[in-house]
Design a protein that fits this description.
418 residues, Aspartate Aminotransferase, domain 2, 2 domains, 14 helices, 15 strands, globular
Amino acid sequence: MADIEKSPYKADFPLLVGHPELAFLDSAATAQRPACVLDAQVDFYRRMNANPLRGLYSLSVMATAEISAVRKQVAEFIGARDENGRPLADDVVFTRNTTESLNLVAKSFAPTVLGPGDEVCVTVMEHHSDLIPWQQACRAAGATLVVMYPEKDGALTEAEVAAKIGPKTRIAACAHVSNVMGCELPVRAIADAVHAQGGYLVVDAAQSTPHLAVDVAELCADFLAFSAHKCLGPMGVGVLWGRHELLAQMPPMLTGGEMIDSVSEQDATWAPVPEKFEAGTQDAAGIFATGAALAYLTQTVGLDAVAAREAALVSYCMEKLSELGFIDIIGSADPARHHGVVSFNVRGVHPHDVASILDMSGVCIRAGHHCAQPLLTWLGVENLACCRASMAFYNDKSDIDRLVGGLNQVWQVFHGRD
């Protein structure tokens, strides 16, 4: 078990250094950024401020090379390699966020395979970003949206997968890790089931990439999406990886500058993948800083250290919350099944009130429906809202202790000291 008494990493994060009074427990929404990431973003503008791919002068050439290097780095980060182990950088598309990546698949790929009577299968645990695009795609194609339901602890059984994925299933879409329950979904089993029917798997990895080693080959994914800002990178940068032959057959979602091969007055032809999907000026500085974020995560800290520290933090958090007689934890009672996330409610107190009172003590948690209203409805969670404490490797024991102390204060506010 990792030593969580003190964090050796907090000193790398300027916001945490500048605000030692904060216990930041909302990393599932957005992670804090280490100084090296902030420095990288500024460095791009100071050293090579030019549009990649759009100039033959040295600044533009340098920017192009740096963005290409990050594309390769992302491919390595998610295990996207060819049969010789080389990273499949050209299959990495930069977007604004996971939401845009998933919308790109639903709007550009789904129409190429979906027709009337077909089915798209999702789980009730999906973030709205991995649900609403499929609702819309089904509506446009005359297809049916089929929903898989887990056990109350978040376990999605083989029987449920087999019952819901059948001959009409053309696409299955699922989160790798639930942003509410923190549980890892059986992505490989879902992949095998949908591939057996000739369908395709889309993986929302927004909540797994900050915590777990992700390998698209092991998952047997056809598409995978995640956001830089949850992996210590800047806001406004997302990733879509897809199998090359699928990306090649998809039309672009956005059209305009840089995504073309040629244009006439009446027609246009598209650039190859990935440029075909990257219309307009990209956030080049953000992409460059994303490379610094992934290097810090995988090399400076290391994913094994991330997993060990976060497992210890979650275990300690659940142990201390269970000692409070007024807390109901959502999901499994096993800390090992909560990847950085512990959702809970204070009995009789609205989550918004809990979060507001905790904020007075410098404790930052998220309260609300977490863009997962169907899940909270299915779980029967009161007010369709819950509290979520989400941890990262830069947290330490004191952050959890302050959360627990703040929750005791919440209880006292509403129920008195007795």
